[in-house]
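Batch manifest, entry 17 of 40.
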Amino acid sequence: MSAFINNPMEMINGNININLPSCRLYKSFLPTFAPLINNISVTSSVAGQYSLVYITGRNFLSNGITYVNFGPYTNIPICYYSSFNISFVIPLNLPAGDYNVVVVNIYNGQFSAQVKNSYPGNLNYSNPILYTLT
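Output type: structure tokens
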């Protein structure tokens, strides 16, 4: 009749005293959901003309969770390529002037929100990049 083995090492080498090293303790932290802009493809264009702007950075999210604010114009939709690359179109009806480009992520505390529920979300803003319409 076989006996129940609690420790397989006892079966091989008899009673072995295994000293495991103690683990180092690190303070844990949650990853940031704030987007960061590293670069934009162009920093100026002519007012009233079609302009596509590519943004490189990090922490961009898909599915309508990330959008762009262009000065006082908010919630401009983006085209999502990856968490590092997005693009948007400059609105055609803007007057000439200087505008800050800011990427915004809406974080609602869940990675996969349930369908047909509304979540207020926390807004996470990127660093601003100056854009000039001439």
